[in-house]
Specification:
Largest sheet: 7 strands, parallel
Distance between the termini: 52 Å
Number of helices: 9
Order of helices and strands: EEEHEHEHEHEEEEEEEHEHEHEEHH
Shape: globular
CATH topology of the largest domain: Rossmann fold
CATH class of the largest domain: Alpha Beta
Number of strands: 17
Helix content: 25-40%
Strand content: 25-35%
CATH superfamily of the largest domain: HUPs
Structural class: alpha/beta
CATH architecture of the largest domain: 3-Layer(aba) Sandwich
Length: 328
């Protein structure tokens, strides 16, 4: 086992997931403590074009597992591909962003590679050869600290927006290494035939830096257009509380909370959401939380960075033009 830190760079249709580039920041910190280097892995079809972008964020070498059969995510095929890259890199630890893909992929890779696994972490650091991690527990009300064994490969998934991606250096180019992987029919038992984005083809709430969410107070589906306009100006995604989803105002793919999706955007705007404990658990990791609610005693204000006791139908429609003005 070497000393390098391998970052799995998740890409969708030729676009790198921002959360993957954020991992380069923590990878540099970890590599400094192991006297190793930061290396990266790209899996897909035609991913060579993305290598320089990864190098610009600090990867000394990029391992490319490039095959037409990897164009779309397949659990079995990607498991084989990532295991091949890990073997080629001989890494000490592997970092992944906490996404739907990594939740499926990381446990499979950990079993095949006989690695220790920690998921959805918010802090990661080496103490000698021991890797210490911190992960939220009990809906974020407690933090658990764990150590991964010193004599095994370590796989760690890190919650998006826990670290900030550094400024890229466009002058840096990548040292590439192709990794061959032989895919067979067993790896294609499950295939993706079509990609459908939930909620009208807009950004997914788990991948957006800005999420504008609405509750049952919006009264009907058509009123969510108010939030969609604001989210569009901010290049964000539209979310919803469980009550709004249960009422049929929004699809489940937009639900934020324990029974929906856990989000950690840079900015979370809650409109007409009182703040049930399940919803708070799904968004309390947001960097900045803005709450708009007519109820001054609503629980959402207890976690909000900024609170506005106001009618969302009066206040929210004013925000798009104001943001447009601020953005010039």
């Amino acid at each position: 086992m070497g000393n390098d830190i391998l970052v799995f760079i998740e890409q969708r249709e030729g676009k790198i997931l921002p959360a993957s580039l954020q991992l380069m920041t923590v990878a540099k910190e970890l590599a400094a403590g192991t006297d190793g280097s930061v290396v990266a892995c790209l899996i897909g079809s035609g991913v060579d074009a993305l290598a320089d972008t990864v190098a610009g964020h600090g990867a000394h070498k990029v391992y490319l597992v490039d095959d037409p059969g990897l164009e779309r995510y397949s659990a079995l095929a990607y498991t084989k591909a990532l295991c091949a890259a890990i073997k080629a890199a001989d890494a000490k630890a592997v970092l992944l962003a906490t996404t739907f893909m990594s939740r499926d992929l990381a446990p499979r890779v950990a079993i095949r590679a006989k690695a220790g696994l920690a998921t959805d972490c918010t802090e990661v650091e080496f103490d000698g050869d021991k890797l210490n991690v911190t992960t939220p527990l009990y809906c974020g009300k407690a933090l658990g600290s764990f150590s991964l064994a010193t004599d095994v490969l370590k796989l760690v998934s890190i919650r998006p927006n826990t670290y900030v991606a550094g400024e890229p250096d466009a002058a840096v180019t990548a040292d590439r290494q192709a990794v061959a992987v032989l895919l067979d029919d067993k790896d294609r038992r499950v295939t993706t035939t079509e990609l459908v984005r939930g909620g009208g083809g807009v950004k997914d709430v788990t991948e957006a830096d800005v999420v504008v969410s609405g509750g049952r107070s919006l009264k009907k589906e058509e009123n969510f257009q108010i939030l969609e306009e604001l989210a569009g100006v901010l290049d964000g995604a539209v979310g919803a509380s469980r009550a709004a989803v249960d009422a049929g105002y929004q699809p489940h793919s937009r639900q934020v909370g324990l029974t929906g999706k856990v989000v950690t955007p840079v900015l979370y705007i809650a409109c007409g959401i009182d703040g049930a404990i399940q919803h708070l658990a799904g968004m309390r990791g947001s960097k900045v939380i803005v709450a708009v609610n007519t109820k001054a005693e609503a629980p959402i204000f207890s976690v909000a960075t900024y609170g506005c006791v106001a009618d969302l139908f009066t206040m929210v429609p004013l925000l798009p033009d104001e943001f447009r003005r601020l953005k010039g």
